[in-house]
Write a structure and sequence with these properties.
The protein is an all-alpha fold. It contains 19 helices and no strands. It has one domain. Helix content is 78%, strand content 0%. Helix 1 packs parallel to helix 7 and helix 7 runs antiparallel to helix 8. 55% of the residues are buried.
């Protein structure tokens, strides 16, 4: 098996287990705080999302865009990159500690900023949760910093498998909560200080364990890192210049997310809001994480090496190959999940009616899944060439569309065009539309930089995948209706929702493979090869 094949299988297997345990964590959390219409659930979601937002700046921004390509380059230094990584780790740890302290002190302001639609008692509960959750920033950042360094050294497994331990810790803590206090506890007035400490403390402790466990694998890098406060030299100045654009890009993204959160907070207690949106995003990210990250991450390391060596032809080949490989999986994942939207949403809701309401949010997000997968490859190609300036501009446009559509959704509610229960879904539609525009612009800009990207070739492949996925999704939807639709057994409980979604997905995939075979899609053999490697006993 090739190095990329082995890495993809390792990351994919770890991601599958991580996401499955993450699903179980989400199910138990819904049993604790509820979902649709739960003011306590929305309060916890808002508070627990705050450190995630800062983690996004560190991981998706500075580390992925800048640090990984720089570590690849630093490997050619005489010391193998030891001095560079020591300085980066020291600087990163200092920044994380300062950010965590400042954010925790600003917890009341941050909660009010993200959720102005909450009532005073709900704001108070969310703020108390936030005091316990915001220290996660340090450990999210260390996890990202160590994990990306491991990835850059082609040690992919620990970064992918560590979240499983976090999920297990969280599940244990949440189950203890249910044993002590029962659930779901959806009303703000029912929460005591002990309950708050147990729930939020468990969430934070899981992140601590997730970060610490990575340090046990550091010896495999062969690097000896020590505190180094002499931050001049070995390329940190270049990182600063590159990170400047990345920082602005992520700030723009966080601003767009902030405004979305402010709009969605107005629906809390009346329909799907923060908690439902977060769970719909978790479902949305399942195929993205398993497929895009497991296949795309090793490609990114290889692509960075080819770009650094000036091998543009190889980079163009990497782009087309990775998009086609991602596409054959991500297209059917999108359509199959759409067919199973109600049973899948039932996993994170407490009734069939709530599952139907939540399914609209999931469907709205799914519109942007395929464009987001293509964007993963296109955007990281810019990063491989140490270009963070261009991604800033096409992301800025995307953020503008996100903000405009969020306020447009709110205007539709104010004009009584849609009900408040559809506000979160309308905001999600705007998110998806912005991703479509962003990937079109990004691809055009990369085409101008590198020359022909053979766009027609991989677009033809994507079109072939969609052609096969349409009847596949139709078959899955018919199975859902045959099982009774929203009133049937697939929406009768969380467990049966998971089973129903799996059955519908399996039928859709089987039909999809059949149609790809009829269309003689060459990508089918590549896809089946990757799947075989995931089977037990295969290498």
């Amino acid at each position: 098996m090739s190095g990329i094949g082995r890495a993809s299988v390792l990351i994919g297997a770890g991601t599958i287990v991580s996401r499955l345990t993450g699903f179980l964590r989400g199910i138990v959390l819904v049993a604790v705080v509820g979902a649709v219409g739960s003011r306590a659930g929305d309060a916890f979601t808002t508070a627990n999302q705050l450190p995630n937002n800062i983690y996004a700046i560190i991981s998706t921004g500075l580390l992925t865009a800048v640090i990984v390509p720089q570590i690849v380059k630093a490997a050619s230094h005489q010391d193998g990159g030891r001095a560079f990584i020591s300085k980066v780790f020291t600087l990163g740890t200092v920044v994380l500690l300062v950010a965590a302290v400042l954010a925790t002190l600003a917890a009341p302001w941050l909660v009010r900023l993200y959720a102005p639609g909450y009532a005073p008692d709900q704001l108070a509960l969310a703020t108390t949760f936030a005091y316990w959750c915001l220290p996660q920033i340090v450990f999210y950042g260390l996890y990202a910093l160590v994990g990306e360094a491991l990835n850059a050294r082609r040690i992919y497994g620990p970064f992918t498998w560590a979240p499983i331990v976090n999920n297990i810790v969280s599940i244990a803590g949440f189950l203890l909560f249910l044993a002590l206090f029962g659930g779901p506890v959806t009303e703000v007035v029912d929460w005591t200080q002990t309950m708050i400490v147990l729930l939020a403390g468990t969430a934070t402790f899981g992140i601590v364990v997730q970060a610490v466990i990575l340090f046990f694998f550091w010896r495999r890098t062969g690097l000896h890192v020590r505190p180094d406060f002499r931050w001049r030299g070995v390329g940190l100045g270049q990182i600063g210049r590159l990170a400047g654009w990345t920082f602005l890009m992520v700030v723009a993204g966080q601003l767009a997310g902030l405004l979305q959160s402010r709009v969605v907070s107005e629906a809390s207690g009346a329909g799907p809001a923060a908690a439902v949106s977060a769970n719909a995003w978790l479902l949305f990210m399942l195929p993205y994480s398993i497929i895009v990250l497991s296949i795309g991450t090793p490609y990114f390391t290889q692509l960075s090496e080819h770009a650094h060596a000036g091998r543009d032809d190889d980079v163009r080949a990497d782009i087309g190959r990775s998009i086609r490989t991602l596409g054959v999986f991500i297209v059917i994942a999108t359509f199959a999940l759409a067919a199973a939207a109600v049973p899948a949403s039932r996993i994170f809701t407490n009734s069939a009616d709530d599952a139907v309401d939540a399914a609209w949010v999931l469907l709205a997000y799914l519109i942007g899944l395929v464009p987001l997968a293509v964007l993963f490859v296109i955007q990281r190609t810019f990063y491989a060439y140490s270009d963070t300036r261009t991604p800033f501009f096409f992301t800025l446009l995307q953020c503008g569309i996100v903000i405009a559509t969020a306020f447009g959704a709110r205007a539709l509610v104010d004009a009584d065009v849609i009900g408040l229960e559809y506000l979160a879904a309308a905001v999600a539609v705007g998110q998806s539309l912005s991703s479509i525009v962003q990937v079109v612009l990004a691809t055009w800009l990369l085409h101008r930089r590198l020359g022909s990207l053979a766009i027609g070739s991989w677009m033809l492949s994507l079109g072939r995948f969609v052609l096969a996925a349409i009847p596949a999704a139709a078959a899955g939807w018919l199975v859902f209706l045959w099982f009774g639709g929203p009133d049937g057994w697939t929406a009768s409980s969380q467990l049966l929702g998971a089973v129903g979604a799996a059955v519908i997905g399996t039928v859709s995939i089987a039909v999809y493979v059949g149609f790809l075979a009829l269309l003689r899609a060459p990508e089918l053999s590549v896809a089946t090869g990757l799947v075989r490697r995931l089977l037990p006993g295969r290498r």
